[in-house]
């Protein structure tokens, strides 16, 4: 009888130990299996700000990388200093985030219109996929396709806290296209 009670308590201890370590082990396995994805995501973030208003990601690194790409591929157009451009129906007093949304909408519409013009099916296709299809068809050069996708990536990473100097850099890249 005493042996059964002691083995039962050992069995219960083992179950409790497994219950205690199962979630940390699972989390470790997920992080280990997807480590490349996590590393890439954190490298693209730039910085992370956590406060009472929530979590904010800064995309300065991605913006700098995009500027470098544009300067390498379109140096003559990036050198032209345009302090203020009008895209769509923006007013001079629009907040930077509104200007960002206008740029995104304008860029996506331009790609969509070109794809329709070229007879490419646009249903259920993202803008980067449409760029690839336009490139494959010869309607976009490889360079312009890459620049468009780079700008889209930057625009999609930007958040509501984008500042006027960042939107100015995005406008310069948009004009370089």
Question: Helix count, per DSSP?
Answer: 8
Strand order of the largest sheet: 1-2
The percentage of residues in β strands lies in 5-15%
Low-confidence stretches: 81-86
Please trace the helix and strand order, writing H or E for each element.
Answer: HHEEHHHHHH
| Terminal CA distance | 83 Å
Structural class: mainly alpha
Global Rg = 25 Å
How confident is the prediction overall: mean pLDDT? Answer: 77
- Level of helix content? over 70%
Throw out a few tags for this protein.
6% strand, 8 helices, 177 residues, mainly alpha, two-stranded antiparallel ribbon
Question: What topology emerges from the helices and strands here?
Answer:
Blueprint: H1 2-33, H2 35-45, E1 47-51, E2 54-58, H3 60-73, H4 75-79, H5 96-117, H6 127-137, H7 142-157, H8 164-176
Antiparallel strand pairs: 1-2
Give an overview of the whole structure.
By secondary structure, this protein is mostly helical. The protein has a domain at 59-176. The chain has helices at residues 2-33, 35-45, 60-73, 75-79, 96-117, 127-137, 142-157, 164-176, and strands at 47-51, 54-58. The chain has a two-stranded antiparallel sheet with strand order 1-2. Helix 6 (127-137) packs antiparallel against helix 7 (142-157). It is elongated and about 75 Å long. It starts with a helix and ends with a helix.
Short description:
This protein is mainly α. Helices cover 70% and strands 6% of the residues. The chain has a domain at 59-176.
């Amino acid at each position: 009888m005493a042996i059964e009670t002691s083995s039962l308590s050992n069995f219960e201890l083992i179950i409790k130990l497994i219950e205690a370590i199962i979630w940390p082990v699972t989390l470790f396995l997920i992080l280990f299996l997807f480590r490349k994805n996590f590393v890439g995501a954190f490298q693209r973030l730039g910085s992370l700000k956590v406060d009472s208003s929530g979590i904010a990601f800064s995309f300065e690194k991605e913006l700098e990388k995009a500027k470098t790409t544009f300067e390498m591929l379109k140096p003559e157009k990036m050198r032209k200093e345009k302090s203020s451009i009008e895209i769509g129906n923006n007013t001079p007093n629009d907040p930077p985030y509104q200007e960002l949304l206008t740029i995104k909408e304008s860029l996506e519409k331009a790609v969509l219109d070109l794809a329709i013009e070229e007879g490419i099916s646009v249903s259920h296709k993202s803008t980067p996929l449409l760029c690839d299809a336009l490139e494959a068809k010869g309607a976009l050069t490889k360079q312009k396709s890459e620049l468009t996708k780079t700008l889209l990536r930057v625009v999609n990473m930007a958040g509501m806290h984008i500042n006027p100097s960042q939107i100015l850099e995005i406008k310069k890249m948009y004009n370089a296209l």
